[in-house]
Amino acid sequence: MSRSILAGALGVTILFSLAAWAQERRPGSPAPGEVRPAAASRVAASVRFAPGSSSLDEAGQASLAPILARLLAEPRSVATIITHAAGMDFSVARARAMAVRRALTGRGIPGRRIRIVNAGMSRGAEPGVVLVRVR
């Protein structure tokens, strides 16, 4: 009987210790009630291309403005260029991603801070749109 009481007490102690550990504030995590500035959020842009084209027009260049602003303001941030393609469209999707990459590197963003991902064709994906995200 005393073993079961001891085991129960130990279990409760461990449970309370885990609960206290979970409540501790981790480095970089917001304090309770703290509101993070907008700079800590993600920034995304959709760059539209004409069918079959990989040329970045003026509208596409303009849509990259918030991405460039974030990358220049936060030197440790990374941009992810996401394309959607299937079948023979991979070469066009890759060319579009490279056009966006060139636009960013041409404005001083190091290539090592840019990733390219082909997400394949998923439901609701627009093949003529390249998504760029910064975290």
UniProtKB/TrEMBL annotation:
Source superkingdom: Bacteria
Domain OmpA-like: 36-135
Keywords: Membrane, Signal
Signal peptide annotation: 1-22
Spans through the membrane: none
Protein name: OmpA family protein
